[in-house]
Amino acid sequence: MMDFKALPKIELHAHLSGSISRECLHDVWVEKKKRGETDLRDPLEEMPVGKFDYNLETFFPLFSKYIYALCNDLSSLIYTTNAVLKDFEADGVVYLELRTTPRAIPSANISKDIYVHTILTCISAFNTTSHSMKANLILSIDRRNDADTAMQVVDLALAHSTVGVDLCGDPAVGDISIFAPAFARARESGLKITLHFAEAPQSSTPAELWTLLGFKPDRIGHVINVPGDVKAEIIKRGLGLELCLSCNVHAKMITGSYGDHHFGWWRGTGCPIILSTDDVGVFGSSLSNEYALIAEHFGLDREEICTLARGAIDTIFGSEEDKQRLREMIWK
Ligand code: IMP
Ligand code: ZN
């Protein structure tokens, strides 16, 4: 396989808590264990190295029952966020839009506001010291949220000047139509919008997909189970598509394997495609590996890979200055 670590890359679909490596979670666990602060199992036992077969039933509880219980204070939030930023940088990512769901941790006196402030402080410090990677933050609304909680996420995004908002969470739950006011406010206030879209059959009814398109997203993620008329609308709008190859294969969200991925369908439609990792800590495939898999299974040569990488530039939620920097950096 070709190696794309040296290729300057853009990552736009990465969930903070899902991007923490097992080794990093283990470090956090060791420190807590020393202080007698945790009864949780060692992350290396809970998520053995080489285990990537999380599906939509086992994936979400991994966060709600385990990762959130481990990363539950200021020091673990800071440690893991810094590690995630360094890991992306080490893989040759030059621009990262990290997303996270604001989470209050009452046991540690952390409000959602403090949570977001803490992550942003790590990002700002990173941006001032890193020479190769710039990061921005997107805040996620969880499908389980009620309308007020969703609006609170938008308020936090505005108060902290993050670049956009996302809709994520278990596709088997929730009525997404209740989020219309939150996304309307986001759009009117100048925030960019990305949505998890047609991720699982349950979340891919025509009613849901047309409602989501009504939120006027700038980008959509996964885009798996899409009926023909919705595909036509996506192409007409030229929406940026965040495609997550390994995640979809490991979680069996698509039938078949890498070569059967809907990347093959969407390439050539004119929609910019942004290869993304989703949850590199869980699915174990770095962004450079995602590029290598695409090159291998879809026969892209070096030039086509560079064109793909450059195609992400205009879809970022960052500034014109961010885009200009990337135009100069990413190989032709
Ligand atoms: P966090 O938002 O930083 O806590 O990252 C983990 C959260 O992201 C999970 O609890 C999920 O709600 C969400 N998430 C991660 N991957 C996916 C996905 O593939 N689909 C939908 N939601 C996801
Ligand atoms: Zn995702």
Mind sketching the topology for me?
Elements: E1 9-15, H1 22-34, H2 43-46, H3 56-70, H4 74-90, E2 93-100, H5 112-129, E3 134-142, H6 147-159, E4 164-168, H7 180-188, E5 192-197, H8 206-214, E6 219-222, H9 228-237, E7 240-243, H10 245-250, H11 263-266, E8 273-275, H12 280-283, H13 287-298, H14 302-311, H15 320-329
This protein binds inosinic acid (IMP) and zinc ion (ZN).
Please name the defining characteristics of this protein.
332 residues, alpha/beta, TIM Barrel, 8-stranded parallel β-sheet, globular, binds inosinic acid, binds zinc ion, Ado/ade_deaminase, metal-binding, Adenosine deaminase-like protein, nucleotide metabolism, adenosine deaminase activity
Give the count of helical stretches.
15
| CATH A-level architecture | Alpha-Beta Barrel
Parts with pLDDT < 50 across at least 5 consecutive residues? none
Query: Structural class, from helix and strand content?
Result: alpha/beta
Q: What is the number of E strands?
A: 8
Q: What is the terminal separation in angstroms?
A: 21 Å
Number of structurally distinct domains: 1
Main sheet overview: 8 strands, parallel
So what's the overall shape?
A: globular
- What is the CATH third-level topology name? TIM Barrel
Order of helices and strands, N to C? EHHHHEHEHEHEHEHEHHEHHHH
Bound ligands, each once: inosinic acid, zinc ion
Strand content: 5-15%
| Alpha carbon gyration radius | 19 Å
Nearest-integer average pLDDT: 98
Report the helical percentage.
40-55%
